[in-house]
Amino acid sequence: MTLDMRAMIKGLVDEIPVDGELCPDSPTGVTFDRAAHVCGRVTNEGGYMRLILEVEVPYTGECARCLCAVSGVFRMSYERTVVNEGTLSDEQLEDNVDEYVVIVDGELDLAEELRDALFLSFPMRLLCSEECAGLCPKCGKPRRDGPCSCAEREIDPRLAILATLLDENEEK
Ligand SMILES: [Zn+2]
Ligand SMILES: [Zn+2]
């Protein structure tokens, strides 16, 4: 994921297309089924350069509540202002890590930036559905498979209130 930016720096082109693949690190418990597809462009906006990318990667993981397999395609937009090295001070860059990418020796290396961005924006918890009711805490049967034989009535009603509170806390 390295772009040759020299033609744009010299003013020879106003647009550099991006179409490539990236092997990202997957968060714990998640598998990326193949390399992420990265496409977009860098454009010269007259005085500054703008990078606009779409990243797409298919994943497999498990539902945080019922542990069933969850798969889908994760998509992320990535936009940055592109600056040549030396344009901004280290301090300015550190204060605005989410705003700039820096050209070094005429090249823009996006691999690490994209890996980090993807890792950070990937959902912390995957759910098979927003309504997933999880597992029965007693027998472990997924609640979506219907009621199990563990009677809810066995729970002391005072404890049941506590359990509800705990559940609510977990949702936050
Ligand atoms: Zn689930
Ligand atoms: Zn049960």
Kindly describe this structure.
- The protein has 172 residues and is α+β, with helices and mostly antiparallel strands.
- It folds into two domains: 2-121, no CATH class; 133-172, no CATH class.
- The chain contains four helices and eight strands; from the N terminus they run βαβββββαββαα.
- Strands 2, 3, 4, 5, 6 and 7 form a six-stranded mixed sheet that branches. It has a two-stranded antiparallel ribbon with strand order 1-8.
- A hairpin with a 4-residue loop joins β4 (36-44) and β5.
- The longest helix is centred in the C-terminal third of the chain and has 15 residues, at 157-171.
- The protein is elongated and about 75 Å long.
- The model has no long low-confidence stretch (mean pLDDT 89).
- Bound molecules: zinc ion (2 copies).
Number of E strands: 8
> End-to-end span in angstroms?
37 Å
Estimate nothing, just give the exact number of structural domains: 2
C-alpha geometry = elongated
Q: Low-confidence stretches at least 5 residues in length (pLDDT < 50)?
A: none
Structural class designation:
alpha+beta
Q: Overall mean pLDDT score?
A: 89
Q: So how many helices?
A: 4
Percent range of helical residues: 10-25%
Ligands bound to this protein structure = zinc ion
User: What is the chain-wise order of helices and strands?
Assistant: EHEEEEEHEEHH
- What does the main sheet amount to? 6 strands, mixed
Strand % is 25-35%
Radius of gyration computed on alpha carbons: 23 Å
